[in-house]
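Usage

Read records sequentially. Each one opens with the input sequence:
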Amino acid sequence: MGRPKTDDPEARARIAAAAESLFAARGYDGTAIRDIAKKAGINGAMIRYYFGSKEGLYRAILETAASKVRALLVDTSSRAGSTRDRLANFVDAYAEYILNHPNLARILYREMLTGGKHIMQVAQKYAVTNYTILRNTIAEGVQAGELRPIDVELAPISLMGMVVIFQFLRPFISVALGKTEYDDRFVNRIAAHTIDLFLNGAVSDRARKRRSTTDREKTRRNTKGSSKVHR
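and closes with the structure output:
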């Protein structure tokens, strides 16, 4: 089988799926074009026709993932409703996408461990904008008084990381929770847990009020003590 006479979306998708699986299992350097061609059931020339090179194919996989996340962010951030609702909608969609694509998480994890050589161009093209959209949504919530004054620069990374960690820790989770497969119910549970912990924290309202009262009392005593010193 040589180069196709016309573009074939199905063949392109088959190549990308085969490459994603191999890159996740073996890494970029450990995967050859002939391996991808064999797994996809096509001629190696087709890979060069559709993607130009192995690096072009690898970058296309990363860009597809990043563009998908951007689409989710644009959609959920532009909806009407509170900041809480928009963040919850994003986490629902993000968890569904990331947790149902374990190979992408493995590829990203390998990239981070090896210095991110191949991901830098994709990061500049997509990731910075994705981060900015989420940061702005959180900042709007802080400005509107819906969220307390948190670090809006670090918060987007924390929020996305809270979802991704469930993909990175799959082997541990399979042992600790007995979850070898992530069905829809478990993915929804992860999304609900993430948004609840991010927005509400782990401290109960009762404990938070008690701490607030204690802090006010300390401030009052410190102020009173300071005024005595200056008399």
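Summary fields computed downstream for this record:
- The CA atoms of residues 206 and 212 lie 10 Å apart.
- The radius of gyration is 24 Å.
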